[in-house]
Specification:
alpha+beta; five-stranded mixed sheet
Length: 149
């Protein structure tokens, strides 16, 4: 009887050198980066969730679009989130999602999800540095700036 299994391969390839990317130092720079990499045609229509992946120097390795949802919610699969974090060998992450309504108040669900991700990240020695909520009009809300991280 043969016992065949799938081969598992873990890889991460940089197209752009992380060493040449900018260091993230404050929420304003994070928001600028996110707005420049968000689809302006859908930011006011559908809620999306992305993660910014960082190295030890807070240089951006990339932005991963984790989910696209409906008008007022999107789902975050923790296994997919951490598969990306671990596969890219990231040591820091910044969470981000948009509120198509323009409401910048962090909901109870937003706060609960952030805490759940933060607790799970500790198991991998990964720091959650912020969670940014974007509004279609260019405003943003930072969990870190508002002391709820």
């Amino acid at each position: 009887m043969e016992h065949k299994v799938n081969e598992i391969q873990i890889s991460y390839r940089e197209k752009l050198s992380t060493l040449k990317s900018a260091s993230i130092t404050d929420s304003k720079k994070v928001a600028e980066l996110l707005f420049n990499n968000w689809d302006a045609h859908t930011i006011g229509a559908q809620e999306s969730f992305k993660i910014i992946l960082l190295n030890r120097s807070n240089k951006v390795k990339g932005i991963y679009p984790l989910s696209v949802g409906g008008i007022c919610t999107t789902l975050v699969d923790m296994r997919l989130l951490f598969a990306v974090v671990v596969k890219t060998l990231s040591v820091g992450i910044i969470l981000a999602h948009n509120h198509p309504s323009g409401q910048l108040k962090a909901s109870y669900e937003d706060q609960r999800l952030t805490q759940k991700i933060k607790e799970a990240a500790q198991l991998f020695d990964v720091k959650v540095l912020d969670h940014i909520i974007l509004a279609p009009d260019g405003r943003y809300y930072s969990f870190a700036d508002n002391g709820i991280l």
